[in-house]
Amino acid sequence: MKTPVLPEWFSQPVDNPPGPKPREGRRFGLPIRKTLAELAEALAREMSSPSQTNSWLGKIEPRAKIVGILMLIFGATLVHGLGAQMVLLGITLAAALSIGLSPRQLGRLWLGVPLFSLAIILPSTLNLVTDGRTALTLWHLGAGIHIGSWNLPEAITITASGLLSAGRFLLRTTNCITLAFLMVSSTDAPVLVNAFRRLGMPKAFGMILTMTQRFLVVLLRAAEEIHLAKLSRSIGGSSLRSEQKWVGAGIAILFRRSYRLGLEVNYAMVSRGYDGDLRVASVPGLQIRDGLWVAAAGGLIALLIVWERFG
Amino acid sequence: MTEPIFEVRNIHYSYPDGSEGLSGVGFSIAGNESVAILGANASGKSTLLNLLDGLCFPNRGEIIAFGKVLTEESVETPPFSRQFRQQVGFLFQNSEAQLFNSTVEEELAFGPLQLRLPAGEVERRVNDALRLLEIENLRDRPPQKLSGGEKKKVALASILACAPRVILLDEPSAGLDPRTQQWLIEFMAELRHAGTTLITASHDLSFVAETSERALILSEDHRLVYNGPAGEALSNLDLLLSANLVHAHTHIHDGKPHLHPHLHEIWHEHHPHNK
Ligand SMILES: Nc1ncnc2c1ncn2[C@@H]1O[C@H](COP(=O)(O)OP(=O)(O)OP(=O)(O)O)[C@@H](O)[C@H]1O
Ligand SMILES: [Mg+2]
Asked: Rounded mean pLDDT of B225-237?
């Protein structure tokens, strides 16, 4: 083997590198690095933090907790009226605050997910989709306009019934998401998967959930490392555009890497005896408070339904 | 020699994407041996360890472990599956992938829990393993945020908690500072003393010289080119050169390979090694 000869650019002075001068006074690469780190952090830690798992909800037996939460989620899809949904949201919110979730965390959850569903539901408020009494006129078209054989109405309006159904949908998703978040944040991921399994969820499903959760943490870590490796090689500030371009390339590398990484994580789990059934440190058996919790969840839903039908 | 723990019979392995991992490798390993698997990068060391751990299976040939052929079926059927996983521990090359729990404590409990040990026993093993590796202070830390050396120790502890009879170690000395390396050498000697079989994949020759008495050498075309005493292999410069394990500027002193810095203008003197 011959000793490699270093190319001449290797020993060029740093204060006179070839190529365009880097712009000064810019911190480089921060936004994406921060996002990745935050995401990894959130997944690894915030999913369930000790303060939530030690709260009253965290102490409820995981199977009972799942049953109760599922009942509430099911209830949220049954209840129609805005009033009943609001009551449910109020109770869910109180529960979230009582187990120590900060308004900031809730804000992030509510901004992210329901906004997304809002984008989907918004068109249905228009009279093009939902007929009904006009609440707000958006755009006056005039009569007799049509696209192909489809006659457009005289004006495009937001209808009252459209608004109502959008509001109902939004409240309902917010309720379901918050309830699911209550469950996830107050239970350690392996305990949760284990409880689902004991409630009869198929083994393959549990395996996928387990692998996904373990693998995501490791994968995000790898993503962060690739970004750090790139950062350590870039000299000047990088523009947002070049950073975006890098993300594209990075994702490609990540996909290639993720296959091997996924395999390795799986190997490491199998090697230590994982056979598809995740066993966790034993949780105390069902207690009276677990029964009370399920009864309370069921009672609340029954109450809301009765109130709506006959109240 | 006791009954062989591993009996490897002329195995071939190629990855699903077609790249070759091993071709025509055969050897056997007895209880309480310490064997090194030597080979240049990409020679197939990690692949061989994966096969020995029943994580993937040879395309041709067979591996017999504890008297039973390793197949997808046999390693998944109790009671052998559980015995095998308990008796063979694997320290992966990439501790990053090996550590997937959210705290060190959970990481250590993972193996014993999967082996269905009772809660009290799990706790005892976690505590003992933490103490054994002197990492009690890391108990509640997330493993992802530890230093490379700390990760290695946690990974080792997580394996020891299963009380294996055989430990497969993939590049255990990589990334460790000299002091920690020395600690690892002593720790491995201690494990040997307790009757553990050690199979170490490495290209760190001085580490191998200190930890293993037998060596298996894989060539760059994934074949087994040597199977015999480690000392003899390490003093056979031609063999090491042909496997690309050393550089042409290596000399051997006292039966140990020694790399000369390739700076001809610097005068280089050899002091007699005091061993
Ligand atoms: N998951 C995989 N998919 C495809 N090919 C692989 C995979 N893992 C390893 N290989 C290939 O198999 C060959 C042997 O790889 P292996 O990882 O066993 O080498 P190694 O001796 O452990 O090397 P190193 O010293 O670098 O760790 C290499 O050519 C490698 O590219
Ligand atoms: Mg390797």
From this structure: 90
